[in-house]
Amino acid sequence: MKTKIIILISAFFIVFSSFSQSGCEAYYPFKEGAKFEITNYNKKGKKEGVVKYEITEIDNNVATIKTLILDEKGKEIADAEYEVACNGNTISIDFKSLMNQDMFKQYKDMEMDITGTNIELPNDLQIGQSLKDANMNMEINMSGIKMKMSIDMINRKVNNKESITTPAGTFDCFALSYNTEMKMGMKMTFEFKEWIAEGVGMVRNESYNKNGKLMGYSELTSISNN
């Protein structure tokens, strides 16, 4: 169960695919009509679900992205629509837009307050570069009882350039890494490794527990530039 939760959360933090190259399109989708698919696996390589993405609109350097999350049997378990902005040479992703409310159906009649700092990704990545931290804080009011949850993305770094092969093809990628600390009553710490390709976006993402053991991974399985 813990692995499925982490894979679901990481699906929202993935640097998504793009299909052409300009100031706003190096590592994020800014092509209207583009579609791509990320498949999630457990540590043994067993399929655990699929996330489908479609860029439905581009307006004033803001991309509207529709997502559909399916379980390992192809059954729909969540959907969402959110926006991503291009600010000069940086893509800015709002944490609030990434947290799909379908993940919190049990809290639908409760008051929720979500705050945080955006995830930023420069379009001019360089080996050895450090990226800005990001965080999200959520407070749920349950009949006067407040429950808090926080997610911090820290130690974001660009480590190397590597070639990665997935069912979607072989890509020359920047290799990134970051740590995620999630607090909700108890603290859980994870390490993520991610490979992104210029003109494509996220190719592969791996999650590790605090002991450095692989928990699961996600990879690009199809892309379509309509």
Helix-strand blueprint:
Layout: H1 2-13, E1 35-42, E2 47-59, E3 62-71, E4 76-87, E5 90-93, H2 95-98, E6 111-117, E7 119-122, E8 134-142, E9 145-166, E10 169-184, E11 186-197, E12 201-208, E13 214-224
Antiparallel strand pairs: 1-2, 1-13, 2-3, 3-4, 4-5, 5-7, 6-8, 8-9, 9-10, 10-11, 11-12, 12-13
Structure description:
The protein is globular. Helices cover 7% and strands 60% of the residues. It is built from two helices and 13 strands. The chain has a 13-stranded antiparallel sheet. The chain has helices spanning 2-13, 95-98, and strands spanning 35-42, 47-59, 62-71, 76-87, 90-93, 111-117, 119-122, 134-142, 145-166, 169-184, 186-197, 201-208, 214-224. The model is unreliable at 1-5 and 15-22 (pLDDT under 50). The chain is mainly beta and 226 residues long.
Short description:
This protein is mainly beta and 226 residues long. Helix content is 7%, strand content 60%.
> Level of helix content?
under 10%
Q: How widely separated are the two ends?
A: 36 Å
- Sheet with the most strands, sense and barrel status: 13 strands, antiparallel
**DSSP strand content:** over 45%
How would you sum up the global shape? globular
Number of strands: 13
Low-confidence stretches: 1-5, 15-22
The secondary structure category is mainly beta
C-alpha Rg (nearest Å): 17 Å
Strand order of the largest sheet: 6-8-9-10-11-12-13-1-2-3-4-5-7
Give the overall average pLDDT.
81
Order of helices and strands: HEEEEEHEEEEEEEE
What is the tally of helical segments? 2
